[in-house]
Amino acid sequence: MIYKKDKLTIEGFDVSFLGKKYKTPIYCYSLKKIKDNIENLKRNFKKIDPLICYAVKANSNLNILKEIKKQNLGADVVSLGELMKALKAGIKPKKIVFSGVGKTEAEIEYAISKNILLINAESKSEILEIEKIAKIKKKNVDIGIRLNPNTDAKTLNQISTGKKENKFGVNQKIFLQLIDYLKKSKYLNLKCLSVHIGSQILSHKPYQSMLKVIDKILKKTNHKFEYIDLGGGMGIDYNHNNSKIDLKKYYKDIEKFLKKNNYKIIFEPGRSIVGNSAILITKIIYIKQGYKKDFVILDAAMNDLMRPALYGANHKIIPTKKVRNNKNKNYEFVGPICESTDTFSTVRKYQKLNEKDFLVICDVGAYGTSLASNYNVRPKPIEILIKGSKIQIISKRQKISELM
Question: Given this structure, which CATH class describes domain 2-29+275-403?
Fold first, then answer.
């Protein structure tokens, strides 16, 4: 996004014009940004040629999945619905990994019937369930085991997944026991060691620690894995202060690891592909005078963008019209929902705003629409995708009548 004559534009389109044409709130995506993010990942890890499986939970819009598929990516899914969407988008089954701690019998049966690349199991009970279904279907099934490496990703507690107190994966002792069990299985092929330590990680060092743990445990096994699934979690620069993970350093850590261990690497990025590709265009309903700040009441709410209410996540909010030499207002940007947590951010020394102005909430491409709800019986917003000089509506605004 850039300002042209003090008017905010995205891929050449005036954001205020988009707000007037499509009515707010609007999720607006840039296809160019998605492609650039994918290319950046591929370029930084080119020498190890990983299988990149996009984490569908970050954004499951079918049209976005189709565009990601065109870039030859696979998919990481965590539910039957996500698996079905990935397949509908044309992603090849042998590029799909099924993760998650609570796969149901129906989900496992469907995954086996579609011959996906891997089911990454997270407990002995799950392995027994997969084995039971494989036996009934008389099929050999390729699986992975998710290891909990007890590695602190130095991120928000709510999105940490690799510490021993988290529900994900199994500890080293159980991991080794499961390898011994699977050696005797007639129906399950153990192909992968899987890990995922958290989300919105901005340093390569937690990954460095994770790789050391994996290296140690591999030495304790005499099992030959085909894949090492390193998960995702690469963060983006929400604060716009150039704080982002150094992918070159992460690549060097993996390269060092692979000198001792010859495996195919799998990545499961979500946020780093779509996170900064979208904005949420919103309109000011009212400006309400407060004690030490004014409340800017928006037509976008926590049902449209849950991250700030869910775990205090910060998203930059910028005006669509820049007013120079007028930054003297203290504002709290809030939604209209009847919850105190329906607030986006508090900003000091902001430019003066007026009712009916358009604003932009930045970097909402990941965990925006995928976490959206109909709380307060509010319709979900429209989604549009900018493709060069064209705009495609990729999800229509819900109608109130649909919610009745």
Answer: mainly beta
Q: What is the pLDDT of residues 288-337, one digit of tens each?
A: 998 889 999 999 999 999 999 998 899 999 999 998 877 788 999 999 99
Name the pTM for this structure: 0.92
d(CA 215, CA 154): 21
Is 338 annotated as catalytic?
A: yes
Catalytic residue, from 53, 192, 338, 362: name it: 338
Nearest 10 degrees: Cα torsion 30, 270, 280, 244: -90
Q: Please name which of 398, 393, 361 lies closest in space to residue 378, comparing C-alpha atoms.
A: 398
Residue with tokens 């619905």: 81
Q: Which residues pair with 147 in a beta bridge?
A: 170
Give me the residue spans of the domains in the chain. 2-29+275-403, 100-267
Q: Which residues contact 213 (CB under 8 A, 6 or more apart)?
A: 147, 149, 150, 151
User: If you average pLDDT over residues 122-150, what whole number do you get?
Assistant: 94
* CATH number assigned to the domain covering 100-267: 3.20.20.10
